[in-house]
Task: structure prediction
Amino acid sequence: MQASEAQRAITAATFTASSLGLTADEAIVLQDSNRLTLRLLPCDVLAQVSPATRAPQFEIDLTQHLLEAGAPVAALDPRVEPRVYERDDFRITLWTYYEPLAAEIPPADYADALARLHAGMRKVDYPTPHFTDRVDEAQKVVADRNISPTLSEADREYLGNALRDLRRVVTERGAADQLLHGEPHPGNLLNAKDGPLFIDLETCCRGPVEFDLAHAPDEVAKYYPGVDEDFLRECRILMTAIVTAWRWDRSDQLPDGRRLGVEWLGKLREQHP
Result:
């Protein structure tokens, strides 16, 4: 967020927490991207503040279903009603804060947590987008010069063709679909005291489990049961194409995103000549 917007978001979050009986005298920014993630003290609640254009109710509802199914996901704060709070053009959700452990999560534990998440997700019947919708979004970024004005014409043609071809390759596999996290990369997995917990469920979609595994470190797949290695490799290349396209969106807020877009385009050309 812009600095002025971020300050308004912090004020909205602290006011909301205080109005609910939670003492929030200090706000520590944990992440600033398409939404602001704050640790509010001394009540020790994690607040996520989104623009009014986003719809975090999806994430709240899905979290509640997954917790009931025994999936390893972070919980909402039990001291307040589990819903979206609106204040000053922001939408605010309040979550349990988990103190992260310093140690890196071993690949076997990572794979076990992801397998348990998928097992819990198979018990949940909740309407979600399909992973191919994510490909559609990436293709729109590449195709619209107003959205991606700095993407060269040669790279635009290559990336558009790659997304089209890779989508066909992956969907023609005919792999079974199920509910997925959508982006279970290390940044969305907390190493909490009682075990790994997945966060940021706003990316959930339906698709093959290999699409989720494509976002995890390579070593994780070695410990996940029943992985199709060839299919996983195809999903990894498709995932690279998708995230590369997003880096060229003029509204992309990922720090150093443009440099990453150039770097990942080079990587994609090596994987998918």
